Amino acid sequence: MTPRGWAVLTLAALVLALLVVGVLLVPWSRPPAPRSDQLAALRDLPADQVARGRALQAALRPGRYTGLAVGLVVALLLGLTPLGARLVELAGRPFGDHWIARAVLGGIAVVLVADLLTLPFAAWRQSVLTRYGLSTQGWGGWTVDLLKSYALSAVVAAVVLLGFYTVTRLAPRWWWAFGAAGAAGLVVLLSFVLPVLVEPVFNRFTPMAQGPLRTELTALAARDGVPVRDVLVADASRRTTAVNAYVSGLGPTRRVVVYDTLLREATPAEVTSVVAHELGHAKDRDVWTGTVTGALGAAAAVVALYLLGSWTPLLRRAGVDSIAEPRAFALLVALVTVVGLIAGPVQALMSRRVEARADAHAMALTGDPATFEAMQRRLAGVNLADPDPPRWAYLWSASHPSTVERMAAARAYAREAGR
Ligand SMILES: [Zn+2]
């Protein structure tokens, strides 16, 4: 069989594996609470809170979607015309057109052009968040964060680009197989290593002070069978008034991280409720599910790109001879951008189901749906969420159930537990 034949077979196997993982590991049997319960929850929320959340989301929306559209147009313009190939050539010229310069500098240049053209939308978003009092960060701090994340992406991109184009040179017929394995490995690595490396770049963590809350959270984790090494407080207030908590690390390095804003805004019982939700993710191995899905998806994407990349009209449009050469990087980015837009809503749907399961876990662990509901109200109020967002926006990108869905789920849980 030819490499192309093997690629078709591999792609079929990967897609099948993705479907199996999606069906088996995502809790599909947990549909949202009835709409009538959600509307009842919405009526119980203070009208000014709902209005303020909706006003913020409406103010953010034009920038968000225009930015998305501009990013897409730039990616298509660079990838489906010879412009991207020319940009890569330009980046390699000072270095005698060496392939490494084209691969690394050219690749970073392509990504940077898209980043810079969408930068005004990121700045606009920051100005809206500041106007609504959600961001506590000045433009100086915002710029420093931006430069940090550019630097971080440039380092990751340089490693990936160099690795990828080394493989396409060494194995011109079979690069897709190594590329797929490499992409899957990279997803695993980024999902476990990156949080540990990246978190300290943006935030400072201090152990939570000894006291009843720390004791309660540690005991909660132990009772849940998810022992944690430490309970840390992140100095999120440097950047935002939004509240959050999460569990990161695996096994012996697992730790609970609570935003300092959460400690300031919420009652200890509510903090416990949030942490119980996060423990649910750890207990149900949601990070593993996400990582396995991501790794299979990345491998499938590489094989699909190889197959698409042998389509001559596409290559001719981009002015390149092969998808495997550095000059074709913009074409790769364009294809990945389109695939990402299609995959986004599917990912969001799976994420919402997983989040609903963590919510149920939190209520079962604390046995306190009333506090869970109170916490959801507070979360929506502090984070200025739209408690019941427009259906299309929800389906397009909501990673969590809406506030009214979560409140309705809490009421359903209380009803069932009381029976
Ligand atoms: Zn969650």
TrEMBL record:
Name the catalytic site residues. 278, 359 (proton donor)
UniProt cofactor note: Binds 1 zinc ion per subunit.
The cross-references to PANTHER family, in alphabetical order and at most eight, read:
CAAX PRENYL PROTEASE 1
Keywords linked to the UniProt accession: Hydrolase, Membrane, Metal-binding, Metalloprotease, Protease, Transmembrane, Transmembrane helix, Zinc
Binding of Zn(2+): at which residues? 277, 281, 355
The GO terms describing molecular function are: metal ion binding; metalloendopeptidase activity
Question: Where does this protein come from, organism-wise?
Answer: Micromonospora matsumotoense
What family does the Swiss-Prot or TrEMBL record give for this protein?
A: Belongs to the peptidase M48 family.
Q: Which cofactor does it need?
A: Zn(2+)
Q: Where is the Peptidase M48 domain?
A: 210-413
Superkingdom is: Bacteria
What range(s) does the CAAX prenyl protease 1 N-terminal domain occupy? 70-204
Which InterPro entries is this protein grouped with?
Answer: CAXX_Prtase_1, Peptidase_M48, Peptidase_M48_N
Question: Biological process GO terms, please?
Answer: CAAX-box protein processing
Coiled coil (residue ranges): none
Protein name (record): STE24 endopeptidase
Residue ranges annotated as transmembrane are: 6-26, 65-87, 99-124, 150-168, 174-198, 287-308, 328-349
